Amino acid sequence: MTEYLITPEPEVVLPIVGMEQVFPVRRVFCVGRNYAAHAREMGDDPSRDLPFFFCKDRTCVQWLKPNQDNSLAYPDATERFEYEVELVVALTRGGRHLSLLEADDSVFGYSLGLDMTRRDLQSQAKQKGRPWEAGKAFEGSAPMTSIVPRHGAALLNQGSIELSVNGVVKQSSDLSHLTWDIAEVVMKLSEQFELHPGDLIMTGTPENVGPVVVGDRIQARLEGVAELELVVV
């Protein structure tokens, strides 16, 4: 029997809608600027850019319980805490250099998530050519809903995605506006990383990202998948 020097952290899991089994989270990959309008608002030309990727630690994942009061702690070391609503895909197959068909087959289901960002820290890192972890990979920075299985259906290629703060719509788009669709994202990611069952991919956010403060209520929805609601505390 293995003896540990310190107590291992508990496994990070997400419930699966309609199933008793849970989804064990392995890694969290994020796609940067995968909607053209968001790329432009961040100063990029989307016609030239291949998808690029960064990571969050799995301990960043916070499950949002349905029909309950969920809260999100305002993090330390920032004065600009911003929301980014995203479709999340969950993989139950992996591999390297996947074809589009293999990438399609790897996707088990979907979640609705927020890529919460300490934008001031991210901006400072970008200006100095430093890594983004301080701006992106902090505790609670990836709140997500339960996973909805696709049950053999075709991958989502359309459906409205929206985020509101205190009842005012801030982000509103459609999955059809993704620069790189789900299968393409998985395929391109597999060219840089060996993917594994349990990996999550946050597929990018629409335009009009912005800040929240303590007391703000965030609501988001992804057509046919999930809704979420939380309060910044």
Automatic annotation (TrEMBL):
Signal peptide: none annotated. Its EC number is 3.7.1.20. It is an enzyme of class 3 (hydrolase). Keywords: Hydrolase, Metal-binding, Pyruvate. Residues 28-232 form the Fumarylacetoacetase-like C-terminal domain. GO terms for molecular function: acetylpyruvate hydrolase activity; fumarylpyruvate hydrolase activity; metal ion binding. InterPro entries: Fumarylacetoacetase-like_C (IPR011234), Fumarylacetoacetase_C_sf (IPR036663). The keyword Metal-binding applies. This is Fumarylpyruvate hydrolase. It comes from Marinomonas aquimarina. The lineage of its organism: Bacteria, Pseudomonadati, Pseudomonadota, Gammaproteobacteria, Oceanospirillales.
